[in-house]
Amino acid sequence: xxxxxxxxxxxxxxxxxxxxxxxxxxxxxxxxxxxxxxxxxxxxxxxxxxxxxxxxxxxxxxxxxxxxxxxxxxxxxxxxxxxxxxxxxxxxxxxxxxxxxxxxxxxxxxxxxxxxxxxxxxxxxxxxxxxxxxxxxxxxxxx
Length: 143
Known about the structure:
The chain is of the alpha+beta class. The protein has a single domain (2-116), classed as 3-Layer(aba) Sandwich (Rossmann fold), CATH 3.40.50. It is built from three helices and seven strands. It has helices at 2-13, 55-58, 84-97, and strands at 18-20, 36-41, 44-49, 66-68, 108-109, 121-122, 128-129. The strands form two sheets. Strands 1-3-2-4-5 form a five-stranded mixed sheet, with helices on one face.
């Protein structure tokens, strides 16, 4: 949840275009195995594991799903069980940077994993309830 929140904040400050690879360990929490997804938001493209890391970003999209990365010709081989960031995510991000169209990486999947994002609520008496989703050093994101 923390990284999803931070990525969403970075997207808002990053400008109008870019390619992002937020992968740390792609196999952790992926319901489709070591599945990777590609999501477009505004003019930015995100390559990430299908484990909820894009939850904050995906909730802001008006329509469309994500593409699941199955076109293995864009991957580094052999693909390691523990280094999908190096073997799948980084090569896909590189091909995107070279101009390969996002649709060439695989078919659309309409149900990417999304985490439940806690929302504050106000009681009739005025008391506000919420949840802390990130606690750490506060620093300004680069412009």
